[in-house]
C-alpha cells in the first residue's frame, strides 16, 4: 500500500544467507515494495545485468560517487566497494513507497545512523555449516574468496543484536512470511503514530 511516506527496510546478513533469494520471493508476493539497486566495483557474475542486479562501476567512478555525496551508505567488502545510491531511495520514500535495501552489516549500521526510523532486519542462516554450503552451492566464489566471506560472516553475526529483528532463513517461504509480518506491523505502528501526531496538531 502506498502511504504519505514509505518505510525504509534494511535486509542485512552474511553473504550467502539468502538475502537475494528471499527478496526475489518477496517481490512475487508484494509488487509495491521498491528494491534499491546497489553500485559495486565487483565484476559482474555470469547472467548479472548492469542496472538490474547492480550498477557496475570502476573504482574511480565509485569514489567519485562517494565524493559527490551520491551514496546513502557504502562499504568495502572483501576488496570491493558496495553502496546504495541515495537518490532512488529518498525519491521512492517521499513518494510513499516502502523501499528495501539488501546490504552487508557495515552499510546497514551507517544507514541506522542517518535513518533511525528505518526497520533493520538481520537474516540469519540455520548454521555456519549451512551458510558455507549455500555459498559453495551458489558456485560464484571459490577457495580463498569463500574463506574471506565466511570470516566476515562470523564478525557480522556478532553484530546481529544491533538490528530490530532477526529472521531465520531456514525455508525461503517462511522467511518471506516473517518479513511480510514485520513490514505490516511496522507500517501499522507508523500509521498510528502519524494519526496521533495529526490529532495533537489539531488540538
Ligand atoms: N532457505 C534456503 N534454503 C536453501 N538454500 C537457500 C535458501 N535461501 C537461499 N538459498 C541458496 O543459497 C545461495 C545463496 O543465496 P543468495 O545468493 O540469495 O544469498 P545472498 O545473501 O543474497 O548472498 P550475497 O550477499 O553474497 O549476495 C543460493 O544458491 C540460494 O539458492
Ligand atoms: N554496504 C553494502 N553492501 C552491499 C550492497 N549491495 C550488496 N551488498 C552486500 O555485499 C556483499 C557481497 O555481495 P555479492 O553480490 O558480491 O555477493 C553481500 O553481503 C551483499 O549484501 C550495498 O549497496 N551496500
TrEMBL record:
Family annotation (InterPro entries): GK/Ca_channel_bsu (IPR008145), Guanylate_kin-like_dom (IPR008144), Guanylate_kinase (IPR017665), Guanylate_kinase_CS (IPR020590), P-loop_NTPase (IPR027417)
SMART domains: GuKc
Source organism of the structure: Alkalicoccus luteus
Key words, A-Z: ATP-binding, Cytoplasm, Kinase, Nucleotide-binding, Transferase
PANTHER family associated with the record: GUANYLATE KINASE (PTHR23117:SF13), GUANYLATE KINASE-RELATED (PTHR23117)
Family indicated by similarity: Belongs to the guanylate kinase family.
Documented EC number(s): 2.7.4.8
Occurrences of domain Guanylate kinase-like (ranges): 6-184
Binding site for ATP: 13-20
Name assigned to this protein: Guanylate kinase
Gene Ontology MF terms in the entry: ATP binding; GMP kinase activity
Pfam families in UniProt: Guanylate_kin
Gene that this polypeptide is encoded by: gmk
One CC-aspect GO term: cytosol
Subcellular location: Cytoplasm
Amino acid at each position: 500500500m502506498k502511504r504519505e511516506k514509505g518505510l525504509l527496510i534494511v535486509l542485512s546478513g552474511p553473504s550467502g544467507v539468502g538475502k537475494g533469494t528471499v527478496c526475489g520471493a518477496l517481490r512475487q508476493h508484494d509488487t509495491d515494495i521498491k528494491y534499491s539497486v546497489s553500485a559495486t566495483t565487483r565484476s559482474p557474475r555470469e547472467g548479472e545485468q548492469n542496472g538490474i542486479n547492480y550498477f557496475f562501476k570502476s573504482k574511480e567512478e565509485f569514489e567519485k560517487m562517494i565524493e559527490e555525496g551520491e551514496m546513502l551508505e557504502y562499504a568495502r567488502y572483501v576488496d570491493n566497494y558496495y553502496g546504495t545510491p541515495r537518490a532512488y531511495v529518498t525519491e521512492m520514500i517521499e513518494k510513499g513507497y516502502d523501499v528495501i535495501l539488501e546490504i552487508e552489516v557495515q552499510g546497514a549500521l551507517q544507514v541506522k545512523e542517518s535513518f533511525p526510523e528505518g526497520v533493520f532486519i538481520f537474516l540469519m542462516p540455520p548454521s555456519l555449516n549451512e551458510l558455507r554450503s549455500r555459498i559453495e552451492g551458489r558456485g560464484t566464489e571459490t577457495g580463498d574468496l569463500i574463506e574471506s566471506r565466511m570470516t566476515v560472516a562470523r564478525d557480522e553475526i556478532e553484530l546481529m543484536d544491533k538490528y530490530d529483528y532477526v529472521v531465520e532463513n531456514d525455508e525461503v517461504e517462511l522467511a518471506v512470511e516473517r518479513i511480510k509480518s514485520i513490514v505490516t506491523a511496522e507500517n501499522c505502528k507508523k500509521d498510528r503514530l502519524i494519526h496521533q501526531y495529526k490529532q495533537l496538531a489539531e488540538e
